[in-house]
Amino acid sequence: MQVSSRPPAVDHSWFALEITGAPPRATVRAVGELDMLTAPHLERELERLRGHGYCDIDLDISGLTFVAAAGLSAFVRCDHRLRAESGRFRLVGPTPRCRQLLAITGLDDDLTIV
Questions:
Q1: Quick one: pLDDT at residue 112?
Q2: What span, in angstroms and rounded, lies between the C-alpha atoms of 90 and 27?
Q3: Which residues contact 79 (CB under 8 A, 6 or more apart)?
Q4: H-helix or E-strand spanning residue 41
Q5: Alpha carbon distance 110, 36 (integer Å)
């Protein structure tokens, strides 16, 4: 399965995902607010990619304006699932506010952030 520049997989007025790439590598760009309503959509989409042979996933979070605890949990679960299968999950381009949140929670030590 190849995914390239397709319309957002999830599109709410406050959250959207855009996916590009071809197995085994995908880049997922998240834009908007990642909260308890949108985090499950992100997890389902990342799980769908994993099921289609994507084991190297970059999550571009530079477009997130808000990240709730549910979003942080989604990051951790996705990272654990991919690592369990010798895959790689990276958070790309966090804003200064998001970097601060990751540092305060200690997730900057557990997750790969570039």
A1: 98
A2: 10
A3: 89, 110, 111, 112
A4: helix 39-51
A5: 22
Q: In Å, how far are 22, 56, 80 from 15, measured between CA atoms?
A: 23, 23, 24
Whole-model pTM over 0.90: no
Residue 8 CB coordination number (10 Å):
15
In sequence order, the 6+-apart residues with CB closer than 8 A to the CB of 67 are 34, 61, 98, 101
Q: What is the pLDDT of residues 41-80, one digit of tens each?
A: 999 999 999 999 999 999 999 999 999 999 999 999 999 9
Q: Beta-strand (E) ranges in 1-114?
A: 11-12, 15-22, 25-34, 56-67, 88-92, 112-113
Cα atoms in the Cβ-side hemisphere of radius 13 Å centred on 28: 28
CB-count exposure of residue 87 (10 Å: 0-12, 13-18, 19+): middle
CB 18 within 8 A of CB 28: yes
